Amino acid sequence: MASSSIVSQTLKSITSVKLKQISKQKTAYEAAKVELLEATDGKTNPERARTLVEGAAKLPAMAPLTSNYNICLDNLKRFLEQAELDMSVSPHLMERYERSVRTELERNSEKYRYAELYGKLVKEWISSRPSADGDSPGRSEMHDQRAAWEAYVFEPKETDKVAIQAALHKWFHESSKDVSRAFNDLAKGFQDFQKSWDDETHFDEQSLKNCMRSLQKSGLLNDEKRTELLEVLNNKVVLNEMVDVLNMRMRMRDSWTWDSDCIVEQRRHLNGRFRFFSDEDLLQTIFLYYIGRKWAVEARKLLMKFFLDPKVMKPASRSMNRQETRRREFFLASRGGAGSGVTSDSVHQKLDKMYKDQVLFSQLPNSMEELRSGYDQEEAAEDIDLALNLDFGLEGDNTEQEARKSHIDVVQDLLKTIQSDLLLRKRLGHDTAVIRSDFKWFGPSTPHSSIFSVLEFLGVNEEWLDFFRRSLECPLRFQGEEDGGQPARLRKRGLPLSTPIADFMAESMLFCLDFAVNQEVDGARLWRLHDDMWIWDSPDKCARAWWVVADFSRLFGLDLNKEKTGSVVIKAAEAVTTGDISSILPTGNVSWGFLKLEPASGLFVIDQAKVDTHISELRIQLEGCKTVFDWIHAWNVYGCRFFMTNFGSLANCYSVTHVDNILRTLRHVQESVFQESVGERLKKILGQRFGVTDITDGFIYYPVSLGGLGLRNPFISYYMYRGPMLNPDEVITRYLEDEEAEYRSAKATFESPDHHAHGDNVVLGVTGDIEDEPVEDVDLDYDGSAGDAELGPEPEGDQWRSDNMDIDAANLESEPFFSFGEYTRHRSRTSKLFGDTLEKLRSRPEAKTLDKPNNIDLPVDWWSLSEEDQWVTLQHAEEVVSRFGSMTMVEGELLPKGVLDMLTQSRFKWSN
């Protein structure tokens, strides 16, 4: 449930006064309305209508009827005056005037009724009390996971420092002189950073605020600490005092120790895993958070500089050699390119850019000001700030500090890229292996000896190593053990969750794995997000990369997670398989969230078994909700956002078939949990708890800003995108046709007399009418990340010359135009068309939104609503306007906005 403890007593009191005032207004209005209607009894028109119109203008409505745009009481008064002598004003017309007034009276009653209901829901939430610690014994998995966590954290694991640093020396000093030079620069960067640490004053008001905002976003703090942090942020006196204390503590960091024990809080996440957070003094938290973040920012800068050195990382795909480049330039007359053959919009460049911009060191911040929540794999779907903003139709805080994509967006982009690339590789005739894995209990299991072996190798001095050692060896107790008489135990293994110090240490260690895979497997990339690892390439390359990962794990004292480790070999019908290497690759499925990679088709499909597991858990969580707001919250975050995220974000590569399967699964979820729709179930809950009946669908689904409860309907997003989705098979077919036409155009231009007479350049991408003729030596080799391993040595013959020969245009004049196989051999580097196709496959289709009706006045804030909320609003507009007179059901001033805002800041506590 969402904790109401974060609502201050002052806000509770103000909200209570507001709700009482609404109740008094409703009572006064209803009494006056009854009196007015009774006054019209026994009268006939036009006197009855005149009594009604004159009385309506005096009613104490929430918005005076004199200002109602649905009727104009002044005009009705004049029409009724006219009716006294003018017989053209028929009785039927007077009845219409009367009905319009009665309708508006009832609409005001409806608005009061729903405003009062809203108030009751808020009061229910404010009055609810979260279960005290220890009230619930928890399920067995809670205790099992705690026992496993304790077995790791309090038992040290020693690894071989000599062997680790020998491996590091091999990777960073024996690979090449360029790598060794770059690594020396990297180590010197860390040394210079340490030397200059005390040259600056670290804390002032602004730097403290930046640190606190980042800390608030991190997910590290519980609700009480988040509330405390918000209060401090707005108190300049306290901020200045904290600045003084923190700067003093920084100067004395050599003697810094833990002032008190840290309390371990066990939080359940939606995937069933529990996470263990340490709750410490806020000042201590800020101090360590700042130091960790400072090191993390510097590490990202230095490690990125090392990786981006063009002489360090091996390229993911083989570059064209001198001979290939000359032949291509000659036959295509592309003399503007400097000979590299690389197109800026090629597949190679797009994947390279994605790897560097989104994946590489994704856990480390760009700056001290950056605001970004941590990466927690599937749990990222329940990111509290994002989830709650979406639940209640609020706009996210898109500041400059949040310019980087969120971690969940990055992993969704990665999944779309893998799926798109697999479709292309399979269609172009190549076997592809895909591996996914992570480390078992990575956070708590990481040996301190491995971490410090790496940090020492990177140039971190003894003073800082000692500080980091003290920061890790924290005295820990569990909640409820504070007064148990048992001494606190020191952390001897593992890293503190969701802290910058942990991110800095983990990324410093795992960057060595990234580099080792690249160097030892001919430029292969390990697509790693924190400890979540993906590799897709030729089966041979994947097998070698997996050997490196397994060997690294053994050396550094880490265990691979069998539950999340698996591989798939996707065979293309036309592929020439070099041998069976399945025994080398890890066993198990390749899956993420509710998606599982199917070997036969090479497509991500829905894993219904996992869905069914979460259906059962969703039912448990909803049944455990004590208030209606909690119930809505649980559905929005779990039943809607979590499920949608784990189905994967929409892209053309997944196809309409996948979307239809998602829609059928969503129906299955609601039928299994409710035996009806989620909205109908919520209506029944409201009826049972508050005795209300005949609740409009609009009230259930409308966003809070328009007076609704904001219950999310997961079907809408999929129907918005389903229609415009492209067929991935057709996209690839069109690409192959265009590629062949492009080749024919280039060949025709080369062979034309004008070309040889004038040496005209060929403009690629222009596909005029070309006579149909067979394509020679078709070699559909996608070299993007695997093909170059299969190319073998250069063949000899008329088309290929030794690199040692001085080939110039004269040598090639007598040769025929190069074959289609040679033309496409390096398509991943040379073809913009190929790059555009990849982009088209992994792109999200444009949403097809609803047309805006001309007969309905849109609310003032219409254009600030999300496309999904606009759909919901229009879907129920006719009923809402009929019952409330406009698309706003409850006026904004009647909503307890302060409490609703606090509700969106509350961290939801899932039932254990």
Automatic annotation (TrEMBL):
Name the record gives this protein: Reverse transcriptase domain-containing protein
UniProt region (Disordered), positions on chain = 781-801
> Superkingdom of this entry's organism?
Eukaryota
